[in-house]
Every structure is written in structure tokens, then in C-alpha cells.
Design goal:
Layout lengths: L6 H4 L18 E8 L6 H12 L4 E8 H14 L5 E5 L8 H6 L23 E2 L2 E2 L1 E3 L3 E7 L1 H6 L10 H5 L2 H6 L3 E4 L5 H15 L7 H6 L9 H15 L12 H9 L3 E7 L2 H8 L7 E3 L12 E3 L2 E5 L6 H11 L2 H11 L21 H5 L4 E2 L8 H16 L4 H12 L2
Helix pairs in contact: 2-14, 8-10, 8-16, 10-17, 16-17
Length: about 425
């Protein structure tokens, strides 16, 4: 997990402008910006190299930006007119740097409708804005727990897709006694605290009501009125009280997760499932990780949160719109999509999930995915990024004791209408 780069360096990505060259031909050099929490991640770099190998004469300049500063950096660049030609985007409208936010501002290139054929069921709205088709997902991921089962079992801790929240809480003291923590948490990073809460809410909120977002938008419910949201936030409080997180979790950053995982001090942490590959690669085979959903409270069915959140879009001001379209088409072609997913440690994008395409780390939840026992990642369709920020920062407040569950729910509702 990388620390933020200097702000000045982040704002130096090569920009784009409208029009073509003097002779009417498009420039054959384009820029690609992507977010990453791990300097060792090579999926986007590999994609760019593959495209250049298949298209002699084309050059793609890649620009990696730290995950926790990417959305703000990309938004600033695009608004200033010096954004990249192709960019990693978040689906929907729930975050800054998302298709909805950038698309409504007229900053994204409209794509050929033929690319819609690769969209997973239920994701078309997440990659459109104002009736325009603007992006495609490049992979699917489970947003939940990255887990070291071998390490946990050595301390007598067992967590499986069939476990409940109560099963987890009952084992945290055992892990502490062994000098370990069941979970690592980057409590000072709102993306990580928010991800934890959403992983729980996938079961407590979206499990019983997959249409909760639509109901909230229609004014039929709210965060404060939904028992499932109270359950999710109370679960965070209960996890802290039971000692399930590492010491100092409230003030920790991403480095606490990678350091704790590499030193064998924690069994799992909250991240998109692609992180399993990053860590296993860094450990050179010494660690075996799996992707798990967060165990739901007893009496509630567990649902993994499946997200098609990571996508690609083009800059409306690019000088090479045909090249940008071609690159995005290449990225989601079946062979390249499988290669990208394998490199990223994710699930290939497509209309359905094939068990034969799943990497070993997904085998514990293969049946869930095959049987469609999952829910979309809730925030992807939220109307603005302030809601997720309010949720994530609110959870940090829960960890420090400065906020109550009611405070966090009230803040999320206020952000929804802001």
C-alpha cells in the first residue's frame, strides 16, 4: 500500500486538448492514469504494454497515482483541462472521480454503444450519465475481507463464508492472547473504514432490500430509519470492543495493513479482493490468502459485495478519440479481460461469472458467486461522494468514541441531500 505522492508531482500528468494534429491525423501517443494502493501492482501497466505490442507505432504513457489521493487528483486535472486521455474511473456517482460525477460535468468521451455488450447485468446505469454511455468496467471484485486462513488456524481462529458476526467476536480475544489481531484496519483512512461498513451492510442492508438505494432516493427510507445500517455500524463498535482490530487502529494508515500482514500479526483486513494477489506476490509464495465476505449477524444471510467499480473512461477533450475508443475495446476483449483479471487478482468482466475463470483465492466463495448469492456494492449508485466520506469519517469517530451510531447515520442522511 503506497503512501501519497507529493501533491505537485500528482498534478503533472500529461493533459489533453480538443482537436487533431495539423494534418488531420490523431496523435498516436495517449496518457493513461490509474489508481493503485500497491506499487507492485502491474495490471494496468501490462494492459498498456499489450496494446502497444498489438498496435505498433502507438505509445501509451502510464501514470500511477496513490489510491487515497486519486479521486481528488483526477477531478482537479479534468476540471483544469489537463487530464489524461484514458483514466481509471469509479462506477456510478457515489465517489469523486466517478463516471457520474465527471460525466455530468461533460468531461468524459462518449463511447460506441457496441461496448455495452461487456457490461455485467445491472451495471449500465453505473457507466452512463445524462443518457450517454461513458465507460466500462475492466474487472469485478469482492469487496470484503482479505484473509490468511493458514495463519488464523495456527492460533485456533476459524472464519469461513458460513461464519456469523458472533463467531468472529467470540474469537478475537484468543487472537490477542496469541499476539495477533483478527483484523487490521486503517482507521484514519475513510476509504478503509467505509469499505468495512459497506462489507457488513451488503448483508444487513442490501441483503434483505437490494433496492435500498432506490428507496432512499425516493424518500421511502433513510439511513437513520434503516435497522440494517444501525446493525452495520454497531457491528464496528462491537468489533472494537472485542479487540478484533490491531492496537491503534483508529489512527492507522494503509501501511499498518501491509506491515501487519507481512509480519504475520493480523489474519485479515478490508480491501477489494485483488489485494490477495498483491500480497501473495510480494511474499513469493510464503502466504496463501483468500477473499471472504464479512460474516453477517446471526439470523441474517451473508452476501458478498460484488463490485464492478473499477473501470476505464476517455477524456472528452482528448486529441485521439478513435485511439482511446480502440484501447478501451482492447481492454475488455475476452482474452485481455481474463489476462487483466489474473494480473490484478480479480474476476474477469463479462455478463456472467464462470467458476473456471476464478483464481484459487475465490474458491471459498465460488458457490456464492456461481449461485448469484451476492449484492452490488452499495455506494456505486449513491448520488454523491460526500455520503461515503461521511460514513467513513463517521466510523473513525465511532472508533475514537467521539461519535455515536446515531451521529453517523444523521451525517450520512444529510450528505445524501447535499
Amino acid at each position: 500500500m503506497a503512501l501519497p505522492l507529493a501533491a505537485g508531482l500528482l498534478l503533472t500528468a500529461c493533459g489533453s486538448g480538443g482537436g487533431t494534429s495539423a494534418n488531420g491525423e490523431e496523435p498516436k501517443t495517449i496518457t493513461l492514469s490509474y489508481a493503485s494502493a500497491n506499487t507492485g501492482e502491474k495490471a494496468f501497466e501490462t494492459l498498456a504494454k499489450d496494446y502497444m505490442a498489438a498496435h505498433p507505432g502507438v505509445h501509451i504513457k502510464t501514470n500511477r497515482i496513490a489510491l487515497n489521493t486519486y479521486n481528488q487528483t483526477l477531478t482537479t486535472q479534468m476540471q483544469a483541462g489537463n487530464g489524461p486521455d484514458v483514466m481509471y474511473v469509479n462506477a456510478g456517482t457515489g465517489q469523486a472521480g466517478s463516471v457520474g460525477q465527471l460525466g455530468k460535468a461533460g468531461l468524459l468521451l462518449e463511447l460506441d454503444s457496441s461496448l455495452k455488450s461487456v457490461l455485467p447485468e445491472g451495471t449500465e446505469e453505473l457507466y452512463s450519465a445524462d443518457g450517454k454511455f461513458l465507460g466500462v468496467p475492466v474487472s469485478l471484485a469482492v469487496s470484503g475481507i482479505v484473509y490468511n486462513n493458514d495463519l488464523a488456524e495456527k492460533s485456533g481462529v476459524t472464519i469461513t463464508p458460513a461464519s456469523t458476526l458472533q463467531d468472529v467476536l467470540s474469537q478475537c480475544a484468543k487472537a490477542k492472547k496469541a499476539g495477533k489481531s483478527v483484523f487490521g484496519l486503517a482507521g484514519s483512512i475513510s476509504q478503509n473504514t467505509g469499505l468495512l461498513t459497506m462489507a457488513i451492510a451488503s448483508s444487513t442492508v442490501y441483503g434483505p432490500n437490494p433496492n435500498w438505494n432506490e428507496d432512499r432516493a425516493a424518500g421511502k427510507t433513510s439511513f437513520a430509519k434503516t435497522e440494517g445500517w444501525r446493525q452495520a455500524l454497531q457491528a464496528v463498535v462491537d468489533l472494537k470492543k472485542a479487540g478484533c482490530f490491531q492496537d491503534g487502529a483508529a489512527g492507522a494508515g494503509f501501511d499498518a495493513l501491509t506491515n501487519g500482514a507481512s509480519q504475520g500479526k493480523l489474519f485479515g483486513f478490508f480491501a477489494p479482493s485483488g489485494a490477495t494477489k498483491d500480497i501473495m506476490d510480494a511474499a513469493h509464495g510464503a502466504v496463501k490468502l483468500t477473499a471472504l465476505p464479512f460474516p453477517a449477524p446471526k439470523g441474517t444471510k451473508t452476501y458478498p459485495a460484488l463490485t464492478a467499480n473499477i473501470g476505464l473512461a476517455g477524456n472528452a477533450r482528448t486529441k485521439s478519440p478513435k485511439l482511446v475508443q480502440s484501447f478501451i475495446e482492447f481492454a475488455v476483449s475476452p482474452a485481455e479481460a481474463k489476462k487483466f483479471a489474473d494480473a490484478q487478482g480479480s474476476i474477469p468482466v463479462g455478463k456472467s461469472i464462470s467458476p473456471s475463470d476464478l483464481l484459487p483465492q475465490y474458491q471459498p466463495i465460488a458457490d456464492m458467486l456461481k449461485n448469484k448469492q451476492y449484492r452490488p456494492y452499495g455506494i456505486d449508485a449513491w448520488p454523491n461522494g460526500q455520503i461515503y466520506d461521511a460514513l467513513g469519517s463517521g466510523v473513525t469517530g465511532l472508533l475514537t468514541g467521539q461519535k455515536s451510531v446515531g451521529d453517523v447515520l444523521k451525517a450520512a442522511d444529510a450528505a445524501w441531500t447535499s
